[in-house]
Design goal:
By secondary structure, the chain is of the alpha/beta class. The chain has 14 helices and 19 strands. It is globular. Pfam families: Sulfatase (PF00884).
Length: 532
């Protein structure tokens, strides 16, 4: 059995990259040696536990600002200077945060429930198990739990795909939300002028999407700050749409530039006019996975032509340009928190809903097992959160919902599949190294359907999945192949690794609540590959 780390202990306060492995002192090594045999990382965070972090909350429970950015890959935030300056350097970045089902709706349903997609069963964008109509149990979600715990709850931006097409278009809002300002599909993807359901009233501000969301978020925080004399904590979930694909189509869009060449009509976004052309010299990443479909790459796409590669570079440029409006919105929101005196009692959680590929493995989009498609940016800033720290321990987006509930000491109405990542943070910092926990991963077709595309496990250095249609196994060892260019599932040196990962995957495939993986180990249970 691997040695497990005590779930919540006083971390070191120095900054550094934990993913590279801070060397623990002899004292900390001894502490690890006598750690508890079981470290269950769930349940609400008590005041005593909160005090174990380097800072203390000014009040019993913090306000929580959760910023979600649609289709923002983990690698994109290096191009966002305000996010780097105000969040990354002021907080903790989880460098192996993933969307277990990397698609908009399942990811957002996990953020609402703390459940993996195989449990909330909102697998797709549309269909019986997809989108807004497919999401059941809306009266038992994170905002409902926080509302009952005494929080003012506010929603802004994109909700689940398909929202706003039926009676809900003019309804006062969804259960649990005190202030509801959701964009209405399909205007959600009109980046130049989305429409909002503002607590039952349809509004069209005529502003670029990120600017409209930025302005409204500041107003919502301002109102919440005066609520009950400023003493009542609040929860605001802001959902930015850029850099998700959107329109209206402009003259430089591939559809307009190449009207007679449909093969070049790659899905594209539209940046704010002020950002158009800012990254015209930005090239695609020169990584080994770019346009790669070598031996064993059973989930890679068809090769791109030279013309398609040129269009892909433009798509990548447009995405980074569109993200600049979100970057400025983050700066303005943080500035308001500081000027209004709320910054010191607010935890900020910045994340994406899924990753995104722009040519990696010959793919454009998401819903693949590769790290570029599944990894999300995840940064936490606030009282008690170490500054300028990177943690390599794997977390999933169900953990974010569990964490917010724990911060608010709210009682979830569903058995949580996720864990409180503030405890993961504390344990990782104390150990001075990456800790390991398996995360079950799976994907379903985007337009509904009950049959998985793939299913597997992400565990430490390994990603192991089985392609459902063929039964073909895929194994990546990111320790030796970080860009996942070699499928090692048939490699004899990895036979024992595959056998154990298959066992772990089977154990957690249908997990729910307490049967989902909740412990972090100091060492991998899976052996290293054989040298023979």
């Amino acid at each position: 059995m691997p040695r497990l780390i005590a779930p919540f202990s006083r971390p070191v306060t120095r900054a550094g990259s934990l993913s590279r492995g801070l060397r623990p002192s002899r004292t900390s090594i001894a502490t690890v040696a006598v750690a508890s045999a079981v470290a269950v990382l769930c349940g609400p965070t008590s005041m005593a536990e909160a005090a174990a972090l380097p800072g203390r909350l000014e009040s019993g429970r913090p306000s929580v600002l959760m910023i979600n950015v649609d289709d923002l890959a983990a690698t994109d935030i290096k191009h966002m200077p305000n996010v780097q300056r105000l969040l990354v350097r002021q907080g903790t970045t989880f460098t192996d945060a993933v969307a277990p089902t990397p698609l908009c709706v399942p990811a957002r349903a996990s953020l609402l429930t703390g459940k993996y997609a195989h449990n909330h069963r909102n697998w797709s964008i549309s269909g019986a198990n997809g989108g807004y109509k497919g999401f059941t149990g809306r009266r038992n979600t994170l905002p409902v739990w926080l509302d009952r715990a005494g929080y003012r709850t506010m929603f802004l931006g994109k909700y689940l795909n398909g929202y706003g097409k039926g009676r809900e278009r003019t309804a006062a809002g969804e259960p649990g939300w005190d202030d509801w300002q959701a964009t209405i599909d399909m205007s959600t993807y009109n980046l130049m002028s989305p429409k909002f359901n503002n607590n039952g009233t349809i509004q069209s501000p005529g502003l670029y999407s990120s600017v409209a969301l930025q302005n409204r978020s500041v107003k919502m925080i301002k109102r919440a700050g005066t609520n009950a004399g400023g003493k009542k904590p609040w929860f605001l979930w802001v959902n930015y749409v850029a850099p998700h694909a959107g329109g209206p189509v402009e003259a430089s869009d591939p559809r307009r530039r190449y009207p007679r060449q449909p093969s070049l009509w790659l899905e594209n976004t539209r940046p704010m006019p002020a950002d158009k052309g800012r990254f015209r010299h930005l090239e695609l990443p020169k990584t080994p996975d770019m346009f790669y479909a070598g031996p064993g790459q059973v989930t890679a796409g068809r090769p791109y032509t030279a013309s398609q590669k040129r269009v892909m570079r433009y798509v990548h440029q447009q995405r980074i340009e569109a993200a600049q409006s979100v970057d400025r919105a983050v700066a303005r929101t943080v500035a308001h928190l500081k000027s209004s005196g709320q910054y010191r009692r607010t935890v900020i959680i910045f994340s994406g809903d899924n990753g995104y590929t722009t040519g990696q493995h010959n793919r454009l989009g998401k819903l693949w097992e590769s790290s570029q498609a599944s990894r999300i940016p995840l940064v936490m800033v606030g009282p008690g959160i170490p500054r300028n720290v990177k943690v390599g321990s794997t977390v999933g987006n169900p953990d974010i919902a569990t964490t917010v509930a724990a911060l608010g000491r709210a009682r979830p109405g569903r058995a949580q599949d996720g864990v409180d990542i503030t405890r993961v943070l504390a344990s990782s910092v104390k150990a001075g190294k990456t800790l390991y926990r398996p995360i079950p991963v799976a994907a379903w077709p985007t337009e509904g359907g009950a049959t998985t595309k793939y299913r597997g496990i992400r565990y430490g250095r390994y990603t192991y999945v089985t392609v459902s249609s063929t039964g073909t196994p895929v194994l990546y060892d990111r320790a030796v192949d970080p860009y996942e260019t070699r499928n090692l599932a048939r490699d004899p040196r990895y036979a024992k690794v595959v056998a154990q990962l298959r066992t772990i995957e089977a154990k957690y495939r249908s997990c729910s609540g307490s049967t989902c993986p909740k412990t972090y180990a100091a060492t991998l249970a899976t052996p290293s590959p054989s040298r023979s």
